[in-house]
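Thread: quick sanity check before group meeting

JM: Hey all, I'm pulling together slides for Thursday and realized we never actually wrote out the predicted structure for the chain we discussed last week. Dropping the sequence here so it's in one place. If anyone has concerns about the input, flag it before I start.
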Amino acid sequence: MVTAIVMIKAEVTRIPEVAEAIAQIEGVSEVYSVTGGVDLIAMVRVRRHEHLAEVIPGQVSKIPGVLSSDTHIAFHAYSNHDLEAAFSLGMDD
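JM (edit): ok, ran it. Output follows.
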């Protein structure tokens, strides 16, 4: 599982609709409206590194109202939750 944290700047008046559109993209597990230097943070989880290009520049960046994005790829997850098991339900390799 490849996890990317995508920080998104959006047109202020369109933040809710941009967030909803991003949340509908396959591979996006969550979208948060946040304070600070960005408007939204999306968690993208895909099987292969190559799929990030399909999701982030291929779809997220093309949503009307998205002004820019900054992507951070996670090296390792430190968590009390077994994210790998949670996201592998019903998926074949």
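AS: nice. The chain has a mean pLDDT of 90. DSSP finds three helices and four strands in the chain.
JM: adding both to the slides.
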